[in-house]
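Table S2 (text version). Query chain:
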Amino acid sequence: MSPVRGGTRGGQAEFKWADVSADKDRENYLGHSINAPTGRWQKNKDVHWYNRDQAQTQHERDEEIRKVKELEADALAVALGFEPAKKTIAPAGSPTAGASPPSPAQPKPMTDSTAKALEKEEKRRRKEARREEKRARK
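Corresponding structure-token output:
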């Protein structure tokens, strides 16, 4: 059995991002542009701006994601020729959120993308009807 070799051979305890920024092969390190910034454009810049001051709570993020998924599902349904699903409209924190459908006197306001999709679908139906008329005449 041979004795353990002395000295340090690098490793996690010896690693410093400051050393990476001075290394000639810094591009080979994952995350080098953020963790070891070099150059004039990074000087006095906050390269971690996207990860700071997150004022949104997890509940708010979940609610936003839910709304986006609902809108995407509606757009997909319209594009496939189906009617969008009926949804309840209530403020996020209200106790009646999700309890009962909205009254027919207050229809859901139509978004631009939904209106365009409905218009496109109507044009497609009219075009198909004209084709059927032509086929019937022949």
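Notes on Table S2: Residues 58-137 form one domain. Residues 112-137 form the longest helix (26 residues).
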